[in-house]
Design brief:
Four copies of one chain form a homotetramer. Chain A has a domain of about 220 residues: Deoxyhypusine Synthase. In chain A, helix 4 runs parallel beside helix 14. The first copy, chain A, has 14 helices and eleven strands. In chain A, helix 4 links the parallel strand 1 and strand 2. In chain A, about 50% of the residues lie in helices and about 15% in strands. By secondary structure, chain A is an alpha/beta fold. Chain A has a six-stranded parallel sheet with strand order 7-2-1-9-10-11, sandwiched between helices. Chains in contact: A-B, A-C, A-D, B-C, B-D, C-D. Chains A and D meet through helix 1, helix 2, helix 3, helix 4 and strand 3 of A and helix 1, helix 2, helix 3, helix 4 and strand 3 of D.
Chain lengths: ~350, ~350, ~350, ~350
């Protein structure tokens, strides 16, 4: 603090210089909160890299500064001997963020994945050759309501501006019944099911020569990254698992994953949480630290929900600190903006820093 | 449409009357989209009832009109032979909305409850004599971060502007181990656990003469309302269940609840969804209709998340229609505002309409 | 602080009693941040008044607590010898909040009004017999874009879910040219124009026997409440003023209002700011205190914009304190929710408290 | 439409091929709304350019797709013979977006600027050697409220996470009184004042050899870009103008700018609106087209406010179409995310496309 005060003094002096005596006779008040740290102005130019852009964000304030800091914390989290727990909420896989996550797994940046049954369902549909499609929130010739009524008649499901023809669910059901469920004729952990799903997705993707990559579950299977999915019932994958359980000995133990997950958190020398969106993936990723002596050393969340309503999805990471989910000296950043924009931005910038040398 | 056009013509005439010839020579264009439906202006007065206020909202546009419509749909949903599925997301029980829900259950307005482990945890803590407390997002003398570091030292957990001293979790653990778990020494459905929890909460609340009411789980138990909690692992209740399962034969079957839940949806003559917040409670409530031939006839959601980011929590109910979760002719309203404000407002107005006669 | 600590000690004791020894051997940590202040649970019943409901909000946390506190500060602001500056942003008058504001002016609760040219335009249209109409964001048979294309063909302007047939602008133009502008054939202050507008609105409303009340500008005129409108050019009223100025000696002095406004702030013994929405009305209301030695003693803002993006409209009132716009010990509350819902709620509750005795 | 149906048929065939008979016996429903347009998945890699990233966004859905489309429309707007009206709301200049705008003006991409007095104030402060500083929303050792109380004592103003020491306002006042006001001793248009300000900023910046660039007003002056500022009173610049007017013949005509602005809109062969934030700059930019026969052919808005509250700042550009502010066939995109992130992203991508050849 003393150093900063001196520093401040010097800058104060500089400032007078800059002001060229216009404030003559002006006595600057004692300033302890304020310290000299000028805002620069973001400059952009044709052909700059994403890493350059994110550096430029660091000169500015507002959310731009948060994106810069998030890239910084992400690079630290990805670079060191940090065990990275990655939380991925619902609509990210079907809407175009699938490859970013599967590439991060393949390149060893993610150690544990917590996600939703919906993401695994849509990830698998693409692994076996199905496709999501660009669509419209408001279609020509219809209100949103009429639009959705028509889509229902056309047997097309809508996820904001993305469509999924429903026959892909039938294909997915066939995949589960032929390639996944036969391997598990007993009560197993949810992680065992997601592992078999990843294996089957990888096999079918390869066997059929599907153009799209095998995806998140497959990458996790091939890289020994466990995939946890606490609310699996809350998805088409869960509905299919339930229907299969009706006629076989198969079922899922809701509690069995917590021992290996907790062990992983326990063993981590340093731990990082990278959380995209809210809901169960966010809370479950953070909660893991409740039953271990440690807590997260790094945390980045990309959230689309506001903090001021008090909901968990938009809650700050500082709030998580009161529960002991983050270390008191953890480096943590929340970015309040559309995650489909900020996730690629931050991952590209972190990769540029880590891989460019 | 013809009727409306005629209607329009008349109103057009009225309008010319109002304008007193100022627009003389003016030829009104053909108007099919527009029809005469004047906005009134909301009037308020000292001592008006909540029902009066909500009627006044109906005169205005913007979100006020949505609140009015939501009260209307809620009254229909609560009044008729409608099976009501109520989804209750995370922070509502600890922050003051517990009694509204338990009263709705007691008065027979809710038939099926879908909620989170967090709500059941905090509901139970109050049932057995613990209390949440008003707190601060920003405490005197500290940043949010320092504030939360201090709370950690003081062993107090923060939920936005609400505090919970951590010893209540120890009390809750004792309650589970003494009153709840001993009754279930095998693998059971999650609903079976929430039912035993409700029973135990009711018993202890009564035995100890706790001032606060026995709460949501207890009211559900006493009124045969099943409580579904798909992501139970994602809560302190789930953590305790896991720890208990380590040393006993107790465990939870993740899929076992889906048969009775689906049967209930199947049997409903008319079905309504009242969804507070997003996440798993919202999706699971809506998903239930995916495996039945029917769909919701009424739906109200009070959400705090914006629709334009594409996340499920803020998604419109029309989007749910494309999936077949709502009937094509369902009456549905989304209210985009803080649910801690709109839930009491809408329930009070609906009750005034239903119970005042 | 000592008192509170003692208080805390007692409550701690109470708490042990509540816990009935379940935490035996438990040593509560030193707690300075936390103090005993139990959250109650909001109860609602058929026929309760709005004041009752707002009292019940005060038992809860989250935004409900903010609404309760806002009603409290509003009652203080309205009750005492406080000069109330009321900022009213754009879409409020046409969408149904016109009467609440005109009634507040008539009943003496507002001393200075800062608003937009848009609000004055739409307020005047209704004063002279025009009407806004309930409309649709998404019309039957069209996307939002097609809907708006059709409305353009039909010569109907849309304000979210409210329509305005364009011929009302012609009526408004006639009103200005016949009743307002002839009175001012020189360069005047903007407030002089809004005053003449209020006079004319009141006269025509009365003369024609218009059913709707004469509105905000008229009430302000009749109660000697000045109406400031810094960005008047940015409205249909401003466009009309400009067109009139082309052929006459009429014009508007952009700076002339600042002396009487500043004088009013200067003379206020106590000052309160009630701000609905953001933009110029918010900033100008707050800025007024920059050039006086005093600052606001009370402030309530009902904002629909999030604070985390750094925009002024969603900025906290604490931020305004750093600029000296609020007294350091001012009572201030920000309510983050749809103002068309919260304005009637808070005004009704404040009136109930002030007028029920 | 026929073409698309055929196209769909083919894709349907492809799809069956992909599905390898798993849906055998499945009859695809008639699909007119849905058409084959697969979502790709955004890929990122170290060292990619911003243009590459924005191309990748185009493969995804959600907000990423909007950023891609916005870059596309921006490139068209900047490239062709389009007159570009640029609206710049409040906090952008002091928080780090000043250079992006001044560079766009220098490179000829902007023809007319509409902004706030606040932006011009903060832009000028930096032109003459003052600086804004990185700061904290929550400072160490304080609540937000205490933090802002302390900043007040320290004479530092806060704009979200940016600080401005108040002596810079004194320097700015000196600048106005010495370099700007003496040139205008009569009633002038607001644009005349902003032009003199730009001239003075450029001169002083050059004379003193200030490291930071001369900024937005200076660039506009040097490139004959008019700067309109309807609510100039609502800023420190306006307060200073008012104080100067008290003792001189200087004043500002609120209506005088509307003729040249409207002429410019009238003469534009094609017109584009690029709007950053809401408020008066957004509305005034759009309103300009109300009094001309034409309307905008291109429009991009980067807004931080939600549309569902009905406020103008978050209103869709389609709504503006109902008023005739946009051509019916205009290309328009709204990006709902933090503008300090999206403005640099979109400008860099548009420049890469336009300048890389």
């Amino acid at each position: 603090m003393t150093d900063e005060s001196e520093d401040e003094g010097e800058h104060g002096h500089d400032h007078e210089g800059e002001g060229e005596g216009e404030s003559e006779g002006y006595h600057e008040p004692d300033r302890e909160t304020f310290s000299h740290d000028p805002v620069g102005h973001t400059e952009v130019r044709a052909g700059m890299t994403v890493g350059d852009l994110v550096e430029q964000y660091g000169r500015a304030g507002l959310g731009a500064a948060d994106v810069h800091e998030a890239a910084d914390v992400t690079a630290k989290m990805f670079d060191d001997d940090v065990t990275v727990f990655f939380g991925l909420a619902g609509a990210m896989a079907p809407t175009g963020m699938r490859r970013i996550v599967s590439d991060l797994i393949r390149d060893g940046y993610i150690d544990v994945l917590v996600t939703t049954g919906a993401n695994l369902t849509h990830d698998s549909i693409e692994a076996i050759g199905g496709k999501h499609h660009h669509g419209e929130v408001h279609a020509e010739g219809k209100t949103e309501r009429e639009h959705d009524e028509t889509l229902r008649d056309e047997e097309v499901d809508r996820i904001y501006n993305v469509y999924l023809p429903q026959e892909h669910f039938a294909d997915f059901e066939g995949h589960l019944r032929e390639e996944v469920f036969p391997e598990i004729e007993e009560t197993v952990s949810i992680e065992r099911l997601t592992r078999e799903l990843g294996r089957a997705n990888a096999e079918v993707n390869d066997r059929k020569g599907i153009e799209e990559d095998a995806g998140i579950a497959a990458a996790a299977y091939e890289n020994d990254v466990p995939v946890y999915c606490p609310a699996i019932q809350d998805s088409v994958l869960g509905l299919q698992a339930w229907m299969y359980s009706q006629t076989t000995d198969f079922s899922l133990d809701a509690l069995a994953d917590m021992t290996p997950l907790t062990d992983r958190a326990f063993e981590a020398e340093e731990a990082g949480a990278f959380v995209v969106g809210g809901g169960v993936p966010k809370n479950f990723t953070l909660q893991t630290m409740l039953v271990t002596p440690g807590a997260y050393d790094y945390a980045v969340q990309l959230t689309m929900d506001p903090p001021q309503t008090g909901g968990l999805s938009g809650a700050t990471l500082d709030e998580a600190r009161s529960w002991g989910k983050l270390e008191k000296d953890a480096e943590n950043v929340s970015v309040y903006a559309d995650a489909s924009v900020t996730l690629p931005l931050i991952v590209a910038a972190a990769r540029e820093r880590l891989e460019s040398t």
